[in-house]
Design a protein that fits this description.
Domain PDZ: 120-188
Number of helices: 14
Keywords: Hydrolase, Protease, Serine protease
Strand content: 15-25%
Protein name: S41 family peptidase
Structural class: alpha+beta
Family: Belongs to the peptidase S41A family.
Oligomer: single chain
Distance between the termini: 25 Å
Pfam family, one: PG_binding_1
Shape: flat
Radius of gyration: 24 Å
Length: 495
């Protein structure tokens, strides 16, 4: 694998294993990871077998099957009544699919979902190849779709979507009554087409147009720090099937170039396969020591998964630091827990907090059920669900890293006061242009825009055109990349 700049990784991204349906696809996927083969579901995208499928008619489930004289009698009766007596003819397949979706939804678990044939096919395609979408891990959160994390260099990231943004509408359609799969189907689409998203960020709402693209799968990027040739950087985007081998290639390539200290980065990594998380954790944990623990309803005590040659014979012996943030979920958190257990420091902000395990069951006719089948604990036995893992050293990003992009669809007029104007002025101020402190589009705002346009060889008219909006976004992103405080603190500590 060739080295790629931390700030310019190209358009290659990985795919999470959750949502695979989700995640890729729109990618917009869901939170995170399907734990294992289950998967680590997730943002994004949840157990020990890769893409595990269980036979729904096996002895494991036989004791729970119902006949017509039991609880299913009312379901069968309702179906018969609707088919025979409803005032219009109904499609029985649609009714049955609605019942299956409703049963999954009734669990109250956002990671339990019924996948119809189309969704199952999308899921499998997402696991095996590239996808067309916007590139973000998502989950359903109340009436909204919550962004777990935009994928690195994806259209979602380029457009300025951030972890914990909420999608309220897609092309004018509310997501309130949609399942996560239905929302994903709205967001995904052909390369080059646009999707308009109504985003809720804090107390503000704004509309964002995102151009979909084909997102190739690549899970690991690495480089040598420009000022410190013995310090390497390995960015693990998510935990997919090839990620372990890609991680080994990255580490070994860096070591061959004289690197003895590596900063590993799982910020924004929504998770992936449990087996991959264990394999990568095994790189750092001595054989015989715990990596993680899993527990299902049949287990009286958690099952301890220990490091061993079964997961690989390579062990990293150099110094290391792990970077995490609120977009680090599921498999990323397993790795964080394992690395912390052997004394590797963690820098950044508290992780997402995804501590459950999902399995996938074949229901027949290409339908599948993805459901939460257990939970996982850190190497030290902590269940971090909805709590996350706190870093050893808390390092926040600059305030301007939380700004949203300037959209050319926003119409700015003199005297206008709005959250969009306030954001525009904050962007200009972050880029070094003087503006007043109010949220009003005033003379200082227009003059700052003119100065920015002059500095960037744009048409100087003091208005936000497509070119100006794009240039402002690019300039802000460059400033954020060049002032990665979390990475900078890690470099200071490790060197």
């Amino acid at each position: 694998m060739s080295n790629q700049s931390k700030n310019n990784k190209g358009f290659n991204i990985s795919k999470t294993t959750y949502i695979l349906t989700l995640i890729f696809a729109l990618l917009i996927g869901a939170t995170g990871a399907y734990i294992g083969g289950n998967y680590f579901s997730n943002p994004a995208n949840e157990s020990d077998e890769t893409l595990n499928e269980l036979d729904s008619e096996s002895d494991e489930y036989a004791q729970y099957l119902l006949d017509d004289s039991d609880e299913l009698s009312s379901v069968n009766k309702m179906l018969a009544i609707l088919q025979s007596s409803y005032y219009e003819e109904l499609d029985s397949e649609v009714l049955i699919e609605g019942a299956l979706e409703g049963m999954a939804k009734a669990t109250g678990d956002p990671y339990t979902e019924y996948l119809n044939e189309q969704e199952t096919t999308s899921f499998e395609e997402d696991v095996s190849g590239s996808f067309q979408g916007i590139g973000a891990e998502v989950m359903k959160d109340g009436e909204y779709v919550r962004i777990i994390s935009p994928i690195t260099n994806s259209p979602a990231e380029e457009a300025g979507l951030q972890p914990n943004d909420f999608i309220v509408e897609v092309d004018g359609e509310s997501v309130a009554d949609l399942t996560i799969n239905e929302a994903v189907e709205l967001i995904r689409g052909p390369e080059g087409s646009d999707v308009e998203l109504l985003i809720q960020r804090g107390d503000n709402q704004f509309t964002l147009s995102v151009t979909r693209a084909t997102i190739p799968v690549e899970t690991v990027f690495h480089e040598i720090d420009e000022e410190n040739p013995t310090v390497g950087y390995v960015n693990i985007v998510n935990f997919n099937m090839p990620t372990y081998e890609e991680t080994l290639e990255a580490i070994q390539d860096l070591e061959e170039q004289g690197v003895s200290k590596i900063i590993f980065d799982v910020r924004g990594n929504p998770g992936g396969l449990l087996t991959t998380a264990i394999e990568i954790s095994n790189i750092f944990v001595p054989n015989g020591e715990p990596i993680t623990m899993t527990q299902s309803r049949e287990d009286d005590e958690p099952v301890v998964l220990e490091a061993s040659e079964e997961y690989g014979d390579y062990k990293y012996e150099g110094e290391a630091i792990l970077l995490v943030d609120e977009g680090s979920a599921s498999a990323s958190e397993i790795l964080a827990g394992a690395m912390r257990s052997v004394g590797i420091p963690i820098y950044g902000t508290t992780t997402f907090g995804k501590g459950t395990v999902q399995s996938v069951v074949d229901l027949g006719d290409l339908d599948e059920l993805k459901f939460t089948s257990g939970k996982w604990l850190t190497a030290e036995g902590d269940w971090i669900n909805e709590k996350g893992i706190e870093p050893d050293v808390v390092v926040e990003r600059p305030e301007y890293a939380q700004l949203f992009v300037v959209s050319p669809s926003d119409t700015f007029k003199t005297g206008q006061a709005s959250s969009e104007v306030s954001n525009l002025k904050s962007v200009l101020q972050a880029l070094g242009y003087n503006v007043s402190d109010s949220n009003v589009f005033d003379d200082s705002t227009q003059e700052a825009i003119r100065s920015f346009q002059e500095d960037h060889d744009l048409n100087v008219d003091g208005t936000i055109t497509n070119d100006t909006a794009r240039a402002l976004t690019d300039a802000l992103r460059t400033k954020i990349d060049e002032n990665d405080t979390q990475y900078q603190e890690a470099v200071k500590a490790i060197k």
